């Protein structure tokens, strides 16, 4: 009997373990205990809600039903949920103890119990219950004819309380529909902070009723009305997401100063010998909306009382639009050039005993605090605001790292030690087109970090940043997703959840499921390829896009001038993404082949070469009626050339001149064509 | 010399003719005169605007530049156009004599002259100039490396002044993004009226500030705020499009009566012997939002003064939101059942000497006229409003036809003869999923129509109607486009432009180009197929979808109850469209083969059979991990079965039992699977 019991137990454990690794949950829950049964889905599946939840759970549960119905085609009879305990006998019971409030340190935990005839969600707040519904959707399984959930008990809660995504709606405007679909996707991976970068050199994107000049002169007609902002804040709240707006000052001010040049710091250039001080008051500098990418000098004048008057009036309108406690004031990348060359500002510094521009910026930032306090808001800013006199109530947003000559995440740890609450974005710059592994393994608190419990608690979490120099509504989703789901997991799940193979497997399913929420990363790729093909067959372009990646870090838009904000983003680099689909499979095939050169492994490698040779031929044929294919041909030709030679080596055991081979390989390392690079270069090199 | 001249002339004409048929213009212009040269496009292509246009031309010309840049990848240097004569030397010169006003009978004509070094657009109004820019975009040609326009002179103007598209945003809500992208597409094919069906049994979709109950109780939270409506009216105006809102009364009133049951006509059911009259005032009928499709009885009470008070207050808010002169009040499909069973209403009819329900409805409709007049608006309504006392200022919207037991377009001619302005929608019901040819050949004024010039002038044009029982934002575009482009051509171009082969050829390019404007008909098909495939390869599903069409007319949703408004529209029928892509090609192959059974023609036919046999095998394999594929298998299997037998007959000259063959063929005529039908059935039958 003793043995029998042990055997049964072992079978369960083994079953559970097998099933657990086959699940496509993301972020991975804190605890999951699979049992051997199933809950079968049918047309009469329905939902009931009990407790004292916020009304958002009714919308959430209704959306849950529609999504599940869309996937399964079961034609559920239940339409809309509108009140508590409408349906006491329902198969899915959701109980929330109390109304949740979006924002930091709210209870987002949940327990999800799937039994063979009942599913029970228990959560302190409706925010936890919403997370449970997303987990349940991810638990969906099927065989050839039906859908079911495996029975299980999951208990879950987030590791960090700030799991954010920033979207820059300033450099390229991103309209309401883009924001909403991304809020849906954020909720699907349990992210809870939307940081909305609303103004920058390239545009002022928020209606200020007292100052219509801002949008009239500095938005090209593309901005959010206050009604739209309220609508989005409400939409986010329904999905458990806090919205943190950013009004970036005192730098990044070209747009603001286009409307109000009188509060700019720049002095008009005069020829030598003319007294700057005297002339300045009569000659007003003009500014214009910036069309390039980069760091620009236009900066507000911190010595001018009008600056604070205008900002006060702006915050008087901005603050009430947002329900959360934080307003992001930017504060980054002010290089102080216009301050240094402005005599009036130099005099102001002396008078106020401000030793340098850092102190001047702190002076400026401290002046903003009462403007926000008036509306019961605290200040958040990029790490540059962290100077010795900065209020400890401010949240420090850590962003600099190796690209900026700093240690990665260094300011985060420094902020926590200095007594500031802090959020990490260094390592989560998804606009830089780095592979998902880089972001996934970037932990806000690396294992060797020595921090007190108090200091640790100040590290609120992290935030993926989608800067929009190189994206439009057409391609932005493919830069955010699916990589941001990996960042969401980093911020939610246990720090030991770091298996890259598991990540890649699960990401494929998450990526597919994002389409359900309107995310366009897959569908719009095909739109761009059709555009390039000039309405011809896109199969060869698809193949090539699966081994090419857009140039990374800041190399695609060298000097910030190749692409203006109105340049076309409808070309090959815009269809390509990081983590090129075939590159990973090819690399694995190469590794297997190098380990064991049996015929099976050989064929796996050589089939890629054959595919690329045919693909190159197809691209050449297509190009006779598609000028936009021409720029790709040198690179696809290089891939064909090396493929042909490596086929000779591998299949015919034929010797090929090493310097020829090396030369052909290096052609595949070119970054001169179509703003992309071949993602298979390193794997090819292994074969040399 | 005489001969030489004639020869040169002949060459030009011949050149021009060849080129003209190769152009993909739609709607086809009234006059096009191609010459032999080209205008080469380059990075420094730019635009200048002169004259006294409405500001919409600056937005239009800027959008034109962005679209052309997106197609060609030339990185134009010119960013935004903001004022007249900014760029006097520009290659493209646009001159507008005066500010156009959107609406009927405005001048929309233009002349477009493309010379080898200059392009000149002359138009009376900016509305004509916008049309010219769309024509110019359609003129774009390319060789293997570059883009150019053929030199030409085009003079153009519309045949009809009302070229409309109606979108039903009530049955399934269609949010702002859906409306805007369809406005863009309408402008691309020179349509100028957007008819916005805003309320129906299934939802009240427009914010009424004085009556928030309407959206609170009868919209499921899905409606347009007044700010959004103003934004859309402005967006449409910028594109030369008039917005005509529809508040459908007195029928189709379930939503309105859900909020205000006290103005409904229904009397509560009592058991026999109870006095209806007495009880009615104390027992209020309740109504609820309708979830099915069909014609329902809830109808406003025309005898109740409160009805007119509420409608007056609604129109007081609705009218000022729209800049045009017309408000559509519906008036259709009131069957009067609740009027007949209501004693109070019967008494009201007697007292007011209204002989029947038609006269009662006319009484009701006439009461609306002053409500609109107050805001300087005229009334438009579906053909049911045309009764003998109806005001001649009303526009009659003709919709009934063979489906309703009437002659096609009969009410249109009757209205014109009766002195009414009138618009045709019968024959343009794009929701019924009929082939494009049916709509294209449906002329508002058929050739044999005898009308006086005055009567003819009353026929304003036509309108495609997109009723939304079976569409969501995911699939609506694939029901509207590209067929609506053919309707646009019917309404704009000369009545003799009727060549179906030319239409089909041009439609392929128009369909592709619609993606540029955000239309999702192609990309979302792939989303649905990926959903059905459960994230597997979609090639076989794609093939099958190219020979299947959704069930037509009203047969898909029999009785209106198979699909509720919250049913899933993510299944195979939703990925399929009319004019199935491969069906036309297969039919042509069959016709050629039957005409001449040479080996080439034989292979063209048999290659389809082989493809379908493999496809069926692939679908079976996919279905082992995709329950949503199961419902397709019987039909795909039938196609495989007949394909195998016909291969034997055609290739092996083998006799097959005719009754077996016939049996297999009829399996292909089944409408029982997955709400689709095989579009190749008729072509297969030809081979028997």
TrEMBL record, chains A, B:
Family of the protein in this entry: Belongs to the glycosyl hydrolase 20 family.
InterPro entries xref list: Beta_hexosaminidase_sua/sub, GH, Glyco_hydro_20_cat, Hex-like_dom2, HEX_bac_N
GO molecular function: beta-N-acetylhexosaminidase activity
One Pfam family here: Glyco_hydro_20b
Keywords carried by this UniProt record: Glycosidase, Hydrolase, Signal
Residue stretches making up the Beta-hexosaminidase bacterial type N-terminal domain: 24-156
Protein name: Hexosaminidase
Residue stretches making up the Glycoside hydrolase family 20 catalytic domain: 160-494
Catalytic machinery residues: 333
Source species taxonomy: Bacteria, Pseudomonadati, Bacteroidota, Flavobacteriia, Flavobacteriales
Signal peptide from the UniProt entry: 1-18
One GO term describing the cellular component: membrane
